[in-house]
Design brief:
Layout: E1 16-20, H1 24-35, E2 39-43, H2 49-56, E3 61-63, E4 75-80, H3 85-97, E5 101-104, E6 117-121, E7 124-128, H4 134-148, E8 167-168, E9 171-172, E10 175-180, H5 191-199, E11 202-205, H6 211-215, E12 222-225, H7 237-249, E13 253-258, H8 268-277, E14 282-285, H9 290-297, E15 311-315, H10 329-333, E16 338-342, H11 348-357, E17 365-370, E18 378-383, H12 387-394, E19 400-404
Helix pairs in contact: 7-8
């Protein structure tokens, strides 16, 4: 008879954790390890775009090859996130020789540690072990989360239009939900968005999605990494559209999980049109957009009585002189309100120079907010004339939001 596992909370801050594998399982498990402060070493010949983005941001170390025993030198824990039983067994054998607890994604019975079903509510973390049955653990976990969460009486589940499926040409179809995940803090997803996420069969996730949300998916959920890393590897929008349609037509409930709001530079409209053309029903769940949340997290209101009665949100991913740009920077320079620029770090010097050339004062307060609402949030305050140079010195990186206007200093003092 197998003994019951001994529950334990590991304090991993600064301690080495080795993750073997760079696919969907590792994509789901790594964020929780980083959130715990672990020194993560990722061993895999290839990575998903989402994991590669974390490597590029300096969040973890990556060794681009297959596992060797020396990888466990100094490790406190190892997570085997590969589906090759022989390779996984070899890693766990090395871990056993060194008395390092080992989690195995391929075979829970062969592991010396299990990953529980987890829910987080503020400072409270609840971890549920289901006696080796992940579904049982998830069911209990979800019930606990429902008790912890603040639920509105009007947020009923039964009978909602988005809970239905349709038919196309006699075939049973699934459905798609375009869900905004918010600006970075996993607790800023809406209650409805989280509920649909727990019901999903397939989750198609962007790079900016809070990683801890992926850690709470059911083990049988198909996770599709549709990361769009700026100026790096990306999946064509048409391919993403096709994935949504194909999975839904096969009968699955697909959640397209997007950072911020699906309709604020998220191409949610294109995805809705693709689904509608294929006869797939779509639900849109708005998200907290970073265009408002990032300034707010930095103590900057986009509007403030007596300071700014309007704000404009624009994309800065194209240079002002690009023929493809639809932004009228000359017109924006004449506005008195707040200007919020998304995806604008690469072209910030050209953008600020254009605004100044068309009449915006170089002394206008300006700020850059990096990774807003997360534990790695950074804020740079400057002026329109100096912000680009200050940005280079501060070494801020995307994702970041630029705010231009007197509201930047409205709450100071």
């Amino acid at each position: 008879m197998t003994s019951n596992p001994y529950p334990l909370g590991l304090r991993l801050d600064g301690r080495r954790v080795v993750v073997v594998g760079g696919g969907a399982v590792a994509t789901r498990r790594v964020p929780a390890l980083l959130d715990a402060g672990a020194d993560v070493l990722l061993v895999a010949p290839e990575l998903t775009p989402a994991l590669r983005a974390r490597v590029d941001a300096g969040r973890l170390h990556w060794v681009p090859r297959r596992f060797v025993p020396e990888d466990l030198d100094g490790a406190w824990l190892v997570q085997v996130a590969i589906d090759d039983p022989m390779a996984a067994a070899s890693v766990s054998a090395v871990a056993a020789e060194r008395r390092i607890f080992c989690v195995r994604a391929d075979d829970r019975t062969a592991a010396t540690a299990w990953t529980p079903a987890v829910t987080r509510h503020g400072p409270v973390t609840v971890a549920v072990l289901g006696g080796g049955d992940p579904r049982r653990a998830m069911t209990v976990r979800d019930a606990i989360r429902d008790l912890l969460a603040v639920r509105l009486a009007t947020d009923g589940i039964a009978g909602r239009p988005d809970a239905s499926t349709g038919t196309t040409g006699g075939r049973r179809t699934g459905r798609v939900a375009l869900v905004g995940a918010g600006p970075g803090d996993p607790e800023l997803i809406t209650v409805r968005g989280w509920r649909l996420l727990t019901e999903a069969d397939v989750v198609v996730a962007d790079r900016l999605v809070p990683g801890l949300l992926l850690d709470e998916l059911r083990p049988d959920v198909e996770l599709v990494d549709a990361s769009k890393i700026p100026y790096g590897p990306s999946r064509a929008q048409e391919e993403i559209n096709q994935i949504l349609v194909d999975r839904a037509l096969a009968g699955a409930f697909v959640v397209r999980l997007k950072g911020g709001d699906p309709y604020v530079f998220g191409r949610g409209g294109e995805e809705l049109l693709a689904c509608a053309e294929a006869g797939v029903p779509v639900t849109v769940v708005p998200g907290v957009t970073s265009s408002i949340a990032a300034p707010a997290a930095a103590g900057i209101p986009v509007t403030h009585r007596g300071v700014a009665h309007e704000f404009t949100v624009v994309s800065g991913h194209l240079a002002p002189d690009s023929p493809a740009s639809l932004v009228r920077w000359d017109a924006l320079a004449g506005l008195r309100g707040t200007l919020v620029i998304l995806m604008g770090l690469k072209n910030l010097a050209a953008i600020t120079a254009t605004l100044i050339a068309h009449g915006r004062s170089p002394q206008t307060p300006a700020a850059v907010v990096q990774e807003a609402t997360t534990g790695t949030q950074r804020v740079l305050r400057s002026t329109l004339g100096e912000i680009a140079a200050d940005l280079r010195t501060a070494d801020l990186r995307p994702p970041a939001v630029v705010v231009v206007g007197d509201v930047v200093g409205a709450l100071d003092g």
